[in-house]
Amino acid sequence: MNVKMIASDLDGTLFAADHQLSERTIAAVRAADAAGIRIVAATGRSSTSTVPRISRASVIRHAVCSNGSLVHDVHDDVTGHRFPIDPDHLARFFDLVAELDPRHSLSWETDHGNGWDDTFADIAFTHDDLGETPTLATRPQAHHRTTKLMVQHPDHEQEELRERLLPHLVDPLTVSCSGVEFVEVTGDGVNKSTGLTHLCRAWNIDPSEVLAFGDNHNDVGMLTWAGHGVAMGNAAPSALAAADEVIGDHRDDAVAMYIESIVEARS
């Protein structure tokens, strides 16, 4: 495989157990960059919490954040492209979750800031993606470019909550889950491969030349889109099923070791 881009999820994949880049991983991605391979972070995180965590590597210049809904320039700390939820779809989704069960609570990411329902506050305070206080206190309006919604329920989490929502959707929204307790909603067909496709077109890279790493349901679209999809040994069943290959655990720098082997093969 002629690898021109490495796209990697962060939590549970490129990150160590402390949700940071290990020294070995930093050395590996720098070596790959020196070998002419573009390194892109592809994460469910917002740019707010992504940038400080990957800036130490210095060579991860772009991040596809919010499950593919935006492409962020890490060096300039500027979001260049967004793939927002259709405003009509957004309004209908808010109505839907309220009708299904008023105990659903939501949080939102938009180009005007983040916010959440009062009942989501306890969760929001534990996730540095969102911040300690909402910057958009009201639910997003049609003129906001909403890139991601997060939906929480007191009795159901992750895959169970996703499966309960899917049959009731009236619009083709993308509902995914990762290592957090809530589910994440992006626009029609928007997943991590959406932002990566944008970068590939800009850089004249074919998806067959992309090596992707992931560990959860929100990585499935990326793993199947890439020329070679690699799941972690600690991955969710959906990611394992979507991958071409399975490697070791993120706590053992498994991605770094894989990248090292790619670079060594080129030397």
General description of the model:
- By secondary structure, the chain is an alpha/beta fold.
- It has 2 domains: 5-82 and 190-266, HAD superfamily/HAD-like (Rossmann fold, 3-Layer(aba) Sandwich), CATH 3.40.50; 87-186, Hypothetical Protein, Haloacid Dehalogenase-like Hydrolase, Chain: A, domain 2, CATH 3.30.1240.
- 33% of the residues lie in helices and 22% in strands.
- The protein is built from 10 helices and 13 strands.
- The chain has helices at 10-14, 23-34, 47-54, 87-100, 121-124, 158-165, 192-203, 220-225, 237-242, 254-266; strands at residues 5-8, 38-42, 62-65, 70-73, 78-82, 105-110, 113-116, 146-152, 174-177, 183-186, 210-214, 228-231, 245-246.
- The strands form 2 sheets. An 8-stranded mixed sheet has the order 5-4-3-2-1-11-12-13, with helices on both faces. Strands 7-6-8-10-9 form a 5-stranded antiparallel sheet.
- Helix 2 packs parallel to helix 10 (254-266).
- The longest helix is centred in the middle third of the chain and has 14 residues, at 87-100.
- The protein starts with a strand and ends with a helix.
Write a concise keyword list for the protein shown above:
eight-stranded mixed β-sheet, 13 strands, 2 domains, alpha/beta, 267 residues, Hypothetical Protein, Haloacid Dehalogenase-like Hydrolase, Chain: A, domain 2, 33% helix
